[in-house]
Amino acid sequence: MSFRKIDIDAYDEDVLLEGELCEPDPRDPAQVLSDAKQKQAAVRSTLAKGDIPGALGIALDSIPYGPNVEEAKNLTLQTVVSILNSTKSSEINNVVKALSQDAQDTLMKYLYKGMGMPGWGDVSGSVLLGWHEKLTEVAGTGCIVRVMTDRRTV
After folding, report:
1. Which of 92, 95, 114 lies closest to 55 in space, CA to CA?
2. pTM for the predicted model, two decimal places
3. Cα–Cα distance between 38 and 36 in angstroms, integer?
4. In angstroms, what CA-CA distances link 89 with 17, 84, 92, 93, 134?
5. pLDDT digits 0-9 by tens, 94-111
6. Beta carbons within 8 Å of 153's beta carbon, 6+ residues apart
């Protein structure tokens, strides 16, 4: 038996598993997907009225996280990116200031996720970088640190 084929983590009682890093989303994956679809419809109607801060607040409320909800995560990312793309650059500061600290942190998570997926959907790097700049101006660098250390990925 080769030593390279032995899984030493199986013998270590102090091994840290992915599921132990954060609490999973308590909702059922089907319910999470249904909630994401309902939020997407609510965001579209709010955007049609021209209420960008309201639409962003809806999209960033009770986000899907944890395993087994990838479809809901992607749908929520699409929703957030559509809001970001439909916002004029002169309005970004006011929109970011209207968000709570938790919502600002969540928005930063989605900005980083969008930056990590080049060529995906209608993700535009310049739009994401513009939002990142304005969000960092308003929320400070603490927002970046909180996002980087949070184990709940979007």
Report:
1. 95
2. 0.85
3. 5
4. 42, 9, 5, 8, 9
5. 999 999 999 999 999 999
6. 65, 109, 113
